[in-house]
Amino acid sequence: MHPQITSSACTARISSAMVRDRASAWSRVAGWRRVAAWIRAALLTLLLACGVASAQSGGGITIDTATTLGTVGPYVYGANYGPLSVVPVALFDAAKASGITFLRFPGGNYGDVNNVRPFDIDMLMTIAKLIGAEPSIHVRLQNGTPDAAAEMVRYTVDKGYDVRHWYIGNEPSLYADYSVERLNREWRAIALAMLEVDPDIVLIGPEPHQWTGLPDSTLVDASGTEWVDGFLRANGDLVDVVAVHRYPFPRSDSDPSTTVADLRANTLEWTGFVSRLRAIAENATSRTDYRYGVTEANSHWSATTGGEATNDSLFNAIWWADVLGKLITDGAYMVNYFDLQSPEGRGGWGLLGSNAPRPTYYVYQLYQRFGSELVAATSTVEFVSAYAALHDDGRLSVIITNLNDDARSPGLELEGAGALESALLLDGTHRATEVADPRSADGAVITLPGRSVTLLVFAPPTEAP
User: How many domains, in total, are found in the chain?
Assistant: First the structure.
């Protein structure tokens, strides 16, 4: 088994660079099969290259503050929210302190099987204001009309709500008797009607379900057309954010059980996820100015709860902290967890339950302390990942995930940072709470509990006299 590929220093420099260079050389005629073939080769090269580097290094974590990798996407701390996600009054304070800064409404397929009412939009704006999040809205595609969609945009304009981001439909790849060709035709008519009302809105699509960009797993329609590629060839001129959905588990309707080992191994799938989406988009359109989003994601699409790795579990939180870090460092513009709140009777998806936050809520307690300017962070320890970012004032935040069952004590190389200001831990006994410095006295080794997420915040480096 190759050591785990953990963050941008390997992923961005090998995967993203290779994908972008090859994408510019592809012709439009090449199509999805050629894209898939190259992705297979690129991923193999990435795995081998990172594996060799890991073996040669002897294991450890390195943070290089002198190597910047870009900025953190503005909407990566998002969640889905809708009429089925009713935040209890007793949890208003928790919602406000959640760290969620973006809401996708109404979340799931609600907006394609129901007509969203003005009252629903008013409630969205109330919740968005309560927690300090920017709202976004999904208009109906299935059984929807251009006039109805345009009216929703007009309502927000007339009310002064300033909703910038809009989606048309939800997971059209699941609609009965639907095709990419039909999606393209109906989506475009609705998009043009919405843009007529407000030409400055940001359109997001096509949001197929269970997208991976990996050979032999990404869905195609009945004609064999891949949903993202086929959509962009027709509507790439109107869409601004190319977005997909992904829930890796359960693998079977008949057996929803998922183990910690299953979830741990799944993190490898998310390395280069945005890069694969970017490669397909640039191949289909030759455009290099798209932004990319994962607008629904969680470990499970099923409502199963109470398992060791279901989406209400502690390990789901550790898994998501790692997956979110991978998406951020791979250049995601937008990431929306599913969802903000769900009562126990509906499922364990929500960051908030009926009476209390669930473990994954605390992932955002850590990430809201992350910086805005990504710097190189690598780990050569299997299933240990590192992500790092600088704040505007020069402070450095480092997030380290340990998905192993047992503790790890890797070496830590860190330059360009001052003294440790705080250390927070999320594990079986800590909920993003402050702990003592987990490093050795000389700072050269860090102890990471099993199944944990550690946040370190360092002061700006002091200048030599």
Answer: 1
